[in-house]
Predict the structure.
Amino acid sequence: MIYLDNNATTQLDPAVLEEMLPFLTTAYGNPSSGYGFAAAARDAIHLARERVAALVGCEPGEIVFTSGGTEASNAALHSALQLDAQRRHIVTTAVEHSATYRYCEHLAKHGYSVTFVAVDRDGNLDLAALEKAIRPDTAIVSAMWANNETGVLFPIEQIADVARGQRVLFHTDAVQAAGKVPMRLRDVSVQYASFSAHKLHGPKGVGALYLSRRAVFRPMLIGGGQEDGRRSGTENVAAIVGFGKAAELAANSLGEMQARVRATRDRFEDVLLREVPDTFVNGNREARVPNTASLSFAGIEAQAALMLLDQQGICCSAGSACHTASLQPSRVLAAMQLNEERINGSLRFSFSRLNTDAEVDRALQIIPRAMGKLRALAGPRASRGESLAV
Ligand SMILES: *Cc1c(COP(=O)(O)O)cnc(C)c1O
């Protein structure tokens, strides 16, 4: 199996599992208990908080552990709407992950209003449109740091400055950026940011919400007062410990991500662009995370390609994972105004530091042959790649 779907989820790093195991076996104390036996869990959460804070460049006290990126993003928007009942408008973008996009759609059905700011054909945000979308009743601006489908990076510092200039809260979904680009939240005017462990070789079901110590917050989960009252519920100790270890490893391998993984991704793209005629890269090739390749193959049906590649042992995706079952054309690529054929022929390959050169070599032998086969089956029009280069 060649796993090239690391934006959907990643393999747990064995060193992460090793640090988690005691908290699933012997060290089962509740971190809120006062006796010495529970101190191990408490101390381990403390260390995890320091490690996640180090990865994203903030203070440990600004990290609140959650059940994942989805909860963190929902909690950020929820908080902003609770803070001021007069502010019932959200500014976000047309290409957000469902964790933000669908929550905003839900809010729009329940009395709030939402502006989805457009992107251009390369997936770049229209900053002027974003600024114009902010109104006196805007509660929050929410824009992702890196796109999960194309890898395109938004200019987070500039968006933060726009929001600050208009005195509006700013949340960024930084799930796909953490561990892939350098991050110093203390230098950016951002109040809330979302993270997820399983996108960086940590366990599923754990993430974090960054809360700037200068920002006010209204919690979504209320109960036992864990996480300083900001997220109640007994901590998922083993998962949090795993997130901490994964964050430490991600910080240590940021250089490798920016050099070796980027070179792998670039080589992969270059070979496919050369060997498979009428292939296109989706999204800005410069302002991009190092691990993501969104490619469009003329005349190919992505669903058929996924099945064929799956038979040959390659895991990749068409658009975002959440959409593969429903056969909906990618909302993100549609927002980039790519035509239907180009969207239908799009596959996302996403790499990690655990992919080897040998795996990529094999994928580069399999994919051109698979595309040739699919085009031959689809007939002469497909093999010419008509109407795609628009
Ligand atoms: C995966 C992902 C999420 C959701 O994180 P979960 O931990 O799976 O809830 C949110 N945003 C982006 C950009 C993602 O890639």
In short: The chain has 14 helices and twelve strands.
